[in-house]
Amino acid sequence: GAVGLITYMRTDSTRVAESAALQARDHLRTLFGADYLAAAPMFYGGGKNAQNAQDAHEGIRPPDPARRPELVRRYLKEDQFKLYQLIWQRFMASQMAPAVFDTTTVDYDLTQASVAVKTTHAYLFRSTGSVIKFPGFFAL
């Protein structure tokens, strides 16, 4: 039969029930292992815009994290699938550890002198590169 894939869609709340966060963490532990979980359950909301939120509802999320996007894709139109995938990934990523990068920055300080005009110009060029050390939520 028909099942709902997201919670109330007309909310602007970012609040998530503790039970939902714990259920997501359990599923993530199964999929990726404990290293990919945030140190503790992550709860959002209560910020300066909390009074504007329709706080009778939670934020939009999948009611069952086990309904991974690839498992329900065949039942959805392409636009529906993309939206569900976005909601599922964002919610699940909110309970995951951050990614860790090794970043290297090289500065090139070049000076150009013009004898004819008797001027000197300094130029600074910067090059930056990053390598993922631990993918964290990017694993999704």
Topology:
Elements (H helix, E strand, L loop, with lengths): L17 H15 L36 H4 L5 H16 L6 E15 L4 E16 L6
Antiparallel strand pairs: 1-2
Characteristics of this structure?
single chain; 140 residues; two-stranded antiparallel sheet; 22% strand; elongated
What does this structure look like?
This protein has 140 residues and is of the alpha+beta class. The protein has three helices and two strands, in the order αααββ. It has helices at residues 18-32, 69-72, 78-93, and strands spanning 100-114, 119-134. A two-stranded antiparallel ribbon has the order 1-2. The protein is elongated, with a radius of gyration of 23 Å. The model has no long low-confidence stretch (mean pLDDT 89).
Order of helices and strands: HHHEE
Main sheet: strands, sense, barrel = 2 strands, antiparallel
Report the oligomer: single chain
By secondary-structure content and strand pairing, the structural class works out as alpha+beta
Give the overall shape: elongated
Average pLDDT, all residues: 89
Which radius of gyration do the C-alpha atoms yield? 23 Å
What separation lies between the terminal Cα atoms?
A: 28 Å
Number-wise, the strands total 2
Q: What is the percentage of strand-forming residues?
A: 15-25%
Uncertain spans, ≥5 residues at pLDDT below 50? none
Number of helices: 3
* Widest β-sheet, arrangement of strands: 1-2
